[in-house]
Amino acid sequence: MTLWQILRWVGAAVGLGALILFFALLGLDRADQLSSVLSLFFTVAGFVLAVVSHLRQQPANGPSPVARGGSIASRGSVRGSKAIDTASTSASSGWPSTGTGPSADSGSIAADGDVRDSEARRGS
C-alpha cells in the first residue's frame, strides 16, 4: 500500500467518524431532517453529472475506416505518414457497408485513432 492510499483511508475514516459524531450530537430528529436535505442535493448533483457525462460522449462517426491500394484511412489525425502505390497511379479508399473495425489491404493503413510516422507500400 502506498502512502497516498493510506492517507485516503485515514481521511475517509476520520471524515466518517466526524459525520457520525456530528449527527449524534445534533439529535435524531434534526439529523434525520438534515440527512434528507443532503440526500436531495447529492441526488440532484448525481443526476446532473450523469446528464453531462452522457452529453459529452463522442458519437461514432459512421462506419470504420477502410484503406485499399496503398492508402491511409483514419478517424484520427494522420501525421508523418505516407502511402506509396507503385503498382498503379490511383488508390481507392472508401467506407464499407458493414463492419466493426478498421480494414486494410494491399499495403494500406487503417486505424480508428491517430496514425503517426507510418508507411504503407504497395508494389507491383
Describe the structure.
With 124 residues, the chain is an alpha/beta fold. The chain is built from two helices and eight strands, in the order ααββββββββ. The chain has a two-stranded parallel ribbon with strand order 1-5. The protein has a two-stranded parallel sheet with strand order 2-6. The protein is elongated, with a radius of gyration of 28 Å.
Q: What brief labels describe this structure?
A:
alpha/beta; single chain; 124 residues; 8 strands; two-stranded parallel ribbon
How would the global form be characterised?
elongated
**Beta-strand content bin:** 15-25%
* CA-based gyration radius: 28 Å
- As a percent range, the share of helical residues equals 40-55%
Write the layout of secondary structure elements.
Blueprint lengths: L2 H24 L1 H29 L9 E2 L4 E3 L3 E2 L2 E4 L17 E2 L4 E3 L3 E2 L2 E4 L2
Tell me briefly what this model is.
By secondary structure, the protein is α/β, with parallel strands linked by helices.
